Amino acid sequence: MNDLARNLVPGPARPGEAPIQWRPQDRPLRRDVHILADMLMHILAEEVSPRLAEQVEGLRRTCKALREGASPELEHQLEASISALPQEEALRLIRAFSLYFQLVNLAEERHRARRRRQYRLDRPTGQAGSPEDLAVHLREAGVGPEQLQQVLNRLRITLVTTAHPTQTLRRTVIDHHQRIAALLERLDDPRLVPAERRRVLEGLRQEIRLLWQTDELRERRPTVLDEVREGLFYFERTLLEVAPRLLAELERALNDAYPGASLRVPGILRFGTWIGGDRDGNPRVTPEVTRRALLAQKRLVITRYLQHLDRLGSRMSQSVRLASVPPGLTELLESYRAAFPDVYRWAAGRFPGEPFREAWVYARWRLELARPPADPEGVADLDSFSPFRGEPPAPADPRGYPNAAAFLDDLHRIQEALGATSPARPHLDELDLFIRQVELFGFHLAAMDVREDGARVRRAARSLLEAAGLRPPTSPADWNRLLAGPPLLGEPASAGSGVDPELAEILESLRVIRWAQEAIDPPAACAYLISMVHGPEALWEALLLAREAGLFRWEPAPGEHPPAESRVDVVPLVESIGDLRRAGAILEGAWTLPAYQAQLSARGNHQEVMLGYSDSNKDGGYFTSNWEIYQAQRRLMQAARRRGVEITFFHGRGGAIGRGGGPSVKALMGLPPGSLPGAMRITEQGEVLSSRYLQPELAMRNLEQLATAAIWSSVPQARMPAARTVGAHSAWEEAADRLSQLALATYRGLVERPGFEAYFRQATPIAYVERLKIGSRPSSRPDMEEMEGLRAIPWVFAWTQSRHLIPGWYGVGTALERFATESPENLALLQEMAQAWAFWQPLMDNLEMAMCKADLGVARLYARLAPEGKEFLDLIEDEFRRTREWVLRLSGRSELLDGQPVLQRSIRLRNPYVDPLSYLQVEMIRRHRAASPPEEQAVLEDAIFRSINGVVGGLRNSG
């Protein structure tokens, strides 16, 4: 075994820290990492040379030694040796360390799945956050079955997949990861004989060798349809099967805890998507692309249903000679025999005397007719290598199922008939689970949101008024008159019709919503999201365009108030600090308009509001962003209560802490009181889909934690404060207001300091992050100043790469220190908040995670790339020290993440392997900036891109 595999436990991560301790239960993880690292080193020696393996080990040892004790001389030697590396050797080292992190990540994910299964074997109540654990806690808290059923009936959590920030690794690489994960799982099988174990190990060697020979970078920027295909992969791989199974297991656990209650767990989990519908700043998302994405979703989900029907048909072989035929089934069969005589003749000849199989024949035939043809680019055909994918979509056959509800009706009739075949009321778990699956995913798989840039909506509304010869409205009364009545243009505005092209395209994108409801499934699309909403007019403008596209109609006559018709939910996205503060006033202002009241009434008096974590963080920093989002929810709930509106919050969380990332479970517990039960939506960003949903066990764990936390957060008993904290919330909130003011001033003082933009551009790899071919969307919004227009994703991405991680902590230390010195009582108040406030605890846990991933020693390397780097790094280092000191003081711990030892150990173990990538990245940037021949620049840029991928793997975060 080589040194890299042998020395996996580094010493202290910083001078004076205790060595990392392994738990006995983590021995299988150490074994897997040893095996994978040892194989990698042997493959590097065979594929390139033994010298490469020696260089990898030498770099690792040096970086480990620097972490164990500062040594300017050793650091100088390291930098000198890296600067002397030939370009080809530097590139190979970057790839070697990057591949190492891919393998370690797979080993950790396998261990998480292993530990979950071990918990279920060792503890009757399962792992914390499991359905069994939830059931125990609910009973202990005194939650009765009636109260619990009410919570379940009201609760709806929708996970919305997005493409951006995109997974930096290619799908091809992820496919290799999937095979390695399967082999690691096989290695756990105690029944393996020596020959089988040797074959598994040889399979691992072969996959790692193939990974080394596979280019991890994309040759071209992905198209939107590529991103659609990537998103569908996770539904096909895990979500389609895991989500209904979770709900069944949850129902079983709750009924075991409440015998005789007959609790029913409805579809408390739902899925949505932006992939193919997010037009905000992405000109490549056209109406036609959105249509194709929706058709691909329908094709994928119906293809899976057809597979289930085949299995059920093979199992349900009851004969009329041995089991009774219930009247309900007879009626179903007779209706189909009359409607489809050709199908009946085939079924009668193939399955004589087997009525259930005959029923499945009709169901399968109608389902097949409802399935869209294959897309020319095979968007839903994930595993096909044929260059010919099929024909463009054709009109649906009217004999097929028109929607999922019609299909479900047949499934329920077959389910009821099965129960009537015997006095024992038999049922089939597979059929029950299949019905849950269809109830969850319908024919649409995931509801498609259409998101548009608020500025484009505003321009389109003005263009519409100009085309109709009308002046812009100047008052709410003007808006109300404008929205009452038929569409303004006599004929539908479309490309080539003479109207403004931007208006025509936006109206067509809205028509896609109606088309989806009719051609895909009624729930397939209904949300129209407007970004950068600054006032109530933004919602009225969107409603005006929706009316023109046939999605809204309200034509009151004098003295009459007929109900409106609406097929769309207008969803404002509130994302700047100022707009978050005005969110309650903005929405309440919109709701006062009679036309918008008619819209709300048509949508069940329901209003969805999206809260933007990313842009608010970039605007106001970590603490202020989180606090203003908390406050915005409270104000919006108060406004909704006044107006009789039911509000749904859509949390636009990213994967990184600086974009609202962190465990969703803790975030749910930190919501303002009154947020649950009810409907809630949460984004699942492209960068986290692989770590959460590639492996079935991990997908189940992620969904069960989310579902159980949502249920627990919905019962008042879970939020009942201790006696000493009753009435304390107002004092805590006043303190948070003041802390937010102080943190905002500190953060803005940094980003508005002269020279800061130059520092950001020079001391981070932002220029290369913007050129990565990892997403279809441009990295900046058009028509905006450079820093203002830069999206939050590359902003956070660049700070993470350079190990500053400013979006995850900056400004908090100064805020805490100044607040504590403003009054003698404030320190005790902060300590009370840290111990007892549900909002505070996840906020600080996530901050600690960001600070642990930050490393200002590494940031110093990047700062040297900037002419004024020392000035800014000194400021940042001072604030980092201050923040660390105050966070530890309030938590009562000696080190960051002492309360999360598994995560702490993982980060500290990774650092000696991330550091070489950072040193190499800085050197490549330095060479690239000095290079002149285009050929040399291209080679260096390629190396930088690969180092970025490697750091993402090491830190498990991009943007």
TrEMBL record:
Cofactors named for this entry: Mg(2+)
GO biological process, one term: carbon fixation
One Pfam assignment: PEPcase
EC number: 4.1.1.31
Superkingdom of this protein's organism: Bacteria
Region ranges (Disordered): 1-22
Keyword annotations of the record: Carbon dioxide fixation, Lyase, Magnesium, Pyruvate
SUPFAM superfamilies noted in UniProt: Phosphoenolpyruvate/pyruvate domain
Molecular function in Gene Ontology: magnesium ion binding; phosphoenolpyruvate carboxylase activity
Catalysed reaction, written as an equation: oxaloacetate + phosphate = phosphoenolpyruvate + hydrogencarbonate
Transmembrane segments: none
Gene Ontology CC: cytosol
Residues at the active site: H164, K618
InterPro entries in the cross-refs: PEP_COase, PEP_COase_bac/pln-type, PEP_COase_Lys_AS, PEPCASE_His_AS, Pyrv/PenolPyrv_kinase-like_dom
Role of this protein: Forms oxaloacetate, a four-carbon dicarboxylic acid source for the tricarboxylic acid cycle.
Family per similarity comment: Belongs to the PEPCase type 1 family.
Subunit: Homotetramer.
UniProt name for this protein: Phosphoenolpyruvate carboxylase
